Automatic annotation (TrEMBL):
It is an enzyme of class 2 (transferase). Its cofactor is pyridoxal 5'-phosphate. The keyword Transferase applies. This is Aminotransferase. It comes from the Bacteria. Homodimer. One of its GO terms (biological process) is amino acid metabolic process. Belongs to the class-I pyridoxal-phosphate-dependent aminotransferase family. GO terms for molecular function: L-aspartate:2-oxoglutarate aminotransferase activity; pyridoxal phosphate binding.
């Protein structure tokens, strides 16, 4: 079939899902593949969350929901944002979305049109690139060096802003690098934004509870005077292991939020009432599990760093949050894999690791940072230990 729109022609499938699909195919063919390609917790959804969803279904909470979310869910999210931003957030200042990804899609589609540029610190989640290009905008990448811990240099941001700049996308803790924002960096970024009032901000804080060193900070809390230009979003997918429940949420200026609601009403309407009941239980219920699970992910990060410390040709910047490792594989480039494959790019390295070592990773080029690979550490200790051993053996056999 031909004749599809330009937005479809410029939309590319995510490399993370492509690698996961290849891993599944190899596994189905009988190979012992360890997949570290998808950022999905292997831990279970908490029992009390599942119980709340079941109770809601049994109570008949199965009708069409309001587009912006149920009263109970918006109230729970408003309480959360009131705490995080250190200012009152009312339920009518909240939008519930089908996962954090829809919050991003809604925000970008409401704001960006052809001719607009979107400033994206790199490395960045591949989904940002997809949605910006789908909306007709142009991504402008702001490279963040490993020596800086992959944190955005405010001077680089200042230099990149033009009259066409419409939006800055911030993601801390960062996927894929694990970089965490501190107040000094966020205040410096805010200082740049004060000089450029035409630039808006999306703060994607989906990994907010997965910080191993330091504390969670977000730009709307650091710079409340910029609140009328900032959409802050999060969700229950990562922290509460609820990826399949598809529930995200956001807050921001009333006009932008209303426009996002129009996008959502056009595309999907409201979020599952059962998922919203589950989210209320997650947000209002016991929070000790967040501390426990953060400790698990910290342990797994340390396990991976230790397991690959002696791997030839790999160099690491320690991730301080999220559940990824993002090593540089520059030392492998220009060499030959154990099976004789020429390793010219990070795509070559990721392909060779999957085909020869049976470990699925994602090339850094998918995250606008070639010369790296991303490994998800949201897997069991056994899987991570075996994967690291295979990667180290692969690197040691490269010629």
């Amino acid at each position: 079939m031909s004749g599809f729109t330009a937005r479809i022609r410029r939309t590319r499938p995510a490399a993370t899902f492509a690698m996961a699909a290849r891993a599944r195919a190899l596994r189905a063919a009988g190979h012992d593949v360890i997949s570290l390609s998808i950022g999905e917790p292997d831990l279970p959804t908490p029992d009390h969350v599942i119980a709340a969803a079941h109770a809601a279904a049994c109570a008949g909470e199965t009708r069409y929901p309001p587009i912006a979310g149920t009263e109970a869910c918006r109230a729970a999210v408003a309480r959360k944002f009131t705490h995080d931003l250190n200012r009152p957030v009312a339920p009518n200042q909240v939008l519930i979305t089908n996962g954090g990804k829809q919050a991003i899609f809604n925000a970008v589609m409401a704001l960006i049109e052809p001719g607009n540029t979107v400033l994206i610190p790199a490395p960045c989640w591949a989904g940002y690139i997809q949605v910006v290009e789908f909306a007709g905008g142009t991504p402008v990448f702001l490279p963040c060096s490993a020596s800086s811990g992959f944190r955005l240099d405010p001077a680089r941001l200042e230099a990149a802003i033009t009259p066409a700049s419409r939006l800055l996308l911030l993601n801390y803790p960062n996927n894929p690098s694990g970089a965490v924002a501190d107040p000094a960096m966020l205040e410096a970024i805010a200082g740049v934004l004060r000089r450029h009032p035409h630039v808006h901000v999306i703060a994607d804080d989906i990994y907010e509870h997965l910080i191993f060193e330091g504390a969670y900070h977000t730009i709307a809390g650091i710079a409340p005077d910029l609140a009328d230009r900032i959409v802050t979003l999060s969700g229950v997918s990562k922290s509460y292991a609820m990826t399949g429940w598809r529930l995200g949420f956001c807050t921001g200026p009333a006009d932008w939020l209303a426009a996002m609601g129009l996008v959502q009403g056009t595309a999907t309407a409201g979020v599952s009432t059962i998922s919203q009941a589950a989210a209320v239980a997650a947000l209002d219920g016991p929070q000790d599990l967040l501390i426990e699970r953060r400790a698990i992910y910290r342990h797994r990060r340390d396990l991976v760093l230790a397991g690959l410390a002696a791997a030839p040709h790999l160099t690491f910047t320690r991730p301080d949050g999220a559940f990824y490792a993002f090593p540089s594989i520059a030392g492998l480039l220009g060499r030959t894999s154990p099976a004789g494959r020429r390793l010219a790019t990070d795509d070559d390295v990721a392909d060779a690791l999957l085909d020869e070592a049976l470990v699925a990773t994602v090339p850094g080029s998918a995250f606008a940072m070639p010369g790296h690979i991303r490994l998800s550490t949201a897997a069991s200790d056994d899987a991570l230990t075996r994967a690291c051993a295979r990667i180290a053996q692969f690197c040691g056999a490269v010629k």
